[in-house]
From TrEMBL:
This is C-type lectin domain-containing protein. It holds the Pfam family Lectin_C. Residues 1-20 form the signal peptide. PROSITE patterns: C_TYPE_LECTIN_2. It comes from the Eukaryota. CDD domains: CLECT. SUPFAM superfamilies: C-type lectin-like. The keyword Nucleotide-binding does not apply. It comes from Patiria miniata (Bat star).
Amino acid sequence: MAVLLTLSVLLATSAAIVSAGCPGSFIESPYGGNCYEVHRSKKYYCKDARNICQNDGAWLVSIRDGDSMKWINGLYKEYKRSPCNQYYWIGANDLNKEGHFVWQEDGNEIKYHFWEGGEPNNKDNEDCVRVNSDNFEWNDEDYDRSREYCFVCEKYPTFLSEDSE
C-alpha cells in the first residue's frame, strides 16, 4: 500500500512540475498543439518574415490539411490589423529546387495545397507562398523584393516547470 501511495505521489508531482505551453503572444492550436503568432504591425518581404520567425525560434506556418488551413486562416483574420491586408506569408517555398515546394519547418514536400488558378507559375522567379485569407487560395510570390505581407509564425510548445509559470 505504501509503495502504491508513493508511486501516486511521484506521478502527480511529475505532472505538476512540467507542462507544455505557448510563450508570450503565441496561441496554441487545437490541431497538433503547436503555437502560432500573427505578425501584424508591419508588412515584410518573405525573406525578412522567415528571418523574423527564425530569430524567435519559429518558422513561417506550415499548413498540412484543410482543418489546420481553416484554423490558421481564421486566426490570421481575427488578429490582423492595419497595415495588413488579406494576404499573408506561409512557410511553403521552392527556394532549393524550382517547382518542388517544401515546408520551411522541416523541408518536407507539401502534400496539401490550395493553389489559385494558374498557380504556381514562377512569374519573375517566385519562390515563396502567400495565402489569400478571403478565399484560402495560394500563390507563389517573390522572395526578397516587390511584395510585402504580414505573416504567421509557428513554433513548438515550450515545456515549463511549475516554478517558471
